[in-house]
Design brief:
By secondary structure, the chain is α+β, with helices and mostly antiparallel strands. Helix content is 72%, strand content 14%. It contains 2 helices and 2 strands, in the order ββαα. Strands 1-2 form a two-stranded antiparallel ribbon. It is elongated and about 90 Å long. The termini are far apart.
Length: 102
């Protein structure tokens, strides 16, 4: 387990984690999001973090909805493919029965 040193505005934050590189990358992305709101006058660190949290929650919500829509679409396509496969197998079975009857 390694130690990660992160800087958020005027704060230094240090903690242990298993994946230092991943945490550092995520921290950099978070800082970019925070900086996108930093031009708001009188924005405290708490307000900035709250705005970023809202933005991230919105992203999670949109991705969850998109994932659910994709699952529904895949289920519909799978059902359609199953119907086609059943029809094909029934056709082959009838064809083989006709050959067997000759």
């Amino acid at each position: 387990m390694g130690i990660v040193n992160l800087k958020f505005r005027n704060h230094n934050i240090q903690f242990e984690c298993d994946n230092e590189e991943r945490v550092t990358t995520l921290s950099e992305r978070l800082k970019e999001k925070i900086e996108s709101f930093s031009n708001i006058k009188g924005a405290t660190d708490t307000k900035l973090m709250f705005l970023v949290a809202l933005m991230l929650e919105d992203e999670v919500d949109n991705l969850s909805k998109e994932l659910e829509q994709t699952k529904v679409q895949l289920d519909e396509e799978s059902e359609s493919n199953n119907d086609i496969l059943c029809d094909t197998l029934n056709y082959v079975a009838e064809y083989l029965e006709n050959i067997a009857e000759r």
